[in-house]
Amino acid sequence: MAPGSPRLLAALLGLHILAIVFALEVSVGKTNTVMALNNSDVLLPCTFTTCIGFQDLVFTWYFNSTELIYHGKIKSKASEPFLVTRNPRVEFVGSTTGKDNNISIVLKNVEFSDAGKYTCHVKNRKEKNAEHNATIFLTVVQKMVETDNTVTLIIVGVVGGLIGLLILFMLIKRVVLFIIKKTQDGKKECLVSSSGNDNTENGLAGSKAEQKAPPKA
Predict the structure, then answer these.
(1) pLDDT value of position 21
(2) Beta strand pairing status for 33-37 and 42-44?
(3) What pLDDT does 60 receive?
(4) pLDDT (tens place) for every residue of the chain, 217 residues total
(5) Which one, of 78, 80, 42, lies nearest residue 59 by Cα?
(6) Cα–Cα distance between 151 and 171 in angstroms, integer?
(7) Coil, strand or helix at 123
(8) How many whole angstroms separate alpha carbon 189 and alpha carbon 178?
(9) Which positions ≥6 away from 78 have C-beta within 8 Å?
(10) Residues 6+ apart with CB under 8 A from 40
């Protein structure tokens, strides 16, 4: 191995780590599923992050990986995105001049046929055309179903009651043990006092017997 090889490998490794740290990342939020009512408007969130900034950035939204529903470009951080092409029912609601690079869209008058996979794709020229995407799944329903929390509330109530009974039992146990200990200590004190009194009485009786004069002959 050549003398400079370790340094070269270290440099390449460092560049690789930097590439990972400063990599472009796209996110659709904490959950990748959205539910919407039929004939309503639904927000499809998407943000991107990059530590080295962006220039001539291109972002697109696809439905089921093939149908282009929105295409936009952003010149720089100082400018808002401008539209290239879009589906008539899609509206851009994001902003990239603030803290967050928000490229979210709203799909209007949702239909059952709109249910499926929506992909937010970003390409950053400043990062040597680095690309990244994130996917969100849309479900369209006729009406929202209210979640029945009765069983959950019952379980929580039972568990809470059991915990309360356990705490009460522990308190009663401590009180009973305290009373028993005090009672035992009192008995010990009585025994010690009684024993001392007996010894004193025996000693006094012996002294009186010794003090009596012997009978005359």
Answers:
(1) 47
(2) unpaired
(3) 98
(4) 555 566 655 444 444 444 444 589 999 999 999 999 999 999 999 999 998 899 999 999 999 999 999 999 999 999 999 999 999 999 999 999 988 899 999 999 999 999 999 999 999 999 999 999 999 999 999 987 766 667 778 888 888 888 988 898 888 988 888 888 878 777 666 666 666 555 555 554 544 444 555 555 5
(5) 80
(6) 30
(7) strand
(8) 17
(9) 97
(10) 109, 110
Neighbours of 87 (CB within 10 A): 16
Here the tokens at position 127 are 């990062």
- Please name the residue that has the structure tokens 């969100």: 136
pTM tops 0.70, yes or no: no
Asked whether 130 and 24 are in contact (CB, 8 A), the reply is yes
Task: State the amino acid at position 169 in one-letter form.
Answer: F
What the block records as the tokens of 30 is 């904490």
CB 47 within 8 A of CB 25: no
- Alpha-carbon separation of residue 19 from 26, 27, 43, 120, 173 (angstroms): 16, 18, 32, 22, 63
Question: Distance between CA 159 and CA 153 in Å, rounded?
Answer: 10
Please list, residue by residue across 126-161, b when 16 or more beta carbons sit within 10 angstroms of its beta carbon and e when fewer do: ebeebebbbebebebeeeeeeeeeeeeeeeeeeeee
Sign of CA dihedral 47, 50, 51, 52: negative
DSSP category for residue 126 = G
Nearest-CA neighbor of 138 among 67, 207, 45, 204? 45
Neighbours of 91 (CB within 10 A): 14
Tokens describing residue 84 = 């290239």
